[in-house]
Amino acid sequence: MPLEPGEQAEQLFGTVFEWTKLPLTRWFLAIHLMTQAKNNIPALELNRHLGVRHKAAWLMKHKLLQVMAERKDSRVLDVRVAIDDAHLGGEKPGTRPATMPSWRVRGDKQPPEASSAK
């Protein structure tokens, strides 16, 4: 059943989309990009993906973050939650990453066998 003219606007009242001039497809793409990024997505990246001005991307991002925070504050988890792909903690100070060879940590330009051949 098609919507009557102005009916879509009535359905948007009271939402984050209420006074927007942008199509909802851009908002939904912004929501997708923000929720699928492992870390924070910069407004400049939203600007490039959505094809809007930086100010519009910044406002969209902050409106969506505000709605997400309000939604999160109103819900309390009462069961155990398993998170996939999480990284807790970090590197211990004074240790090197397992993938970095020790000669690179010391600051040598070449491995010991290559530097001794000179």
Q: Could you characterize the architecture of this molecule?
A:
With 118 residues, this protein is mainly alpha-helical. It has a domain at 22-73: Arc Repressor Mutant, subunit A, CATH 1.10.10. The protein has 6 helices and no strands. It has helices at residues 7-12, 24-36, 43-50, 54-73, 102-105, 112-116. Helix 3 (43-50) crosses helix 4. The radius of gyration is 24 Å and the shape is elongated.
Task: Map the helices and strands.
Elements lengths: L6 H6 L11 H13 L6 H8 L3 H20 L28 H4 L6 H5 L2
Helix pairs in contact: 3-4
The string of secondary-structure elements, in order, is: HHHHHH
Question: What is the CATH architecture assignment of the domain at 22-73?
Answer: Orthogonal Bundle
**Helix percent band:** 40-55%
**Strand portion:** under 5%
Give the overall average pLDDT. Answer: 76
Uncertain segments = none
Distance between the termini: 81 Å
Shape: elongated
Radius of gyration: 24 Å
CATH fold descriptor of the domain at 22-73: Arc Repressor Mutant, subunit A
Q: What's the level 1 CATH class of the domain at 22-73?
A: Mainly Alpha
- Tell how many strands the DSSP assignment holds: 0
- SSE class: mainly alpha
Biggest sheet features:
none
Continuous helix count: 6
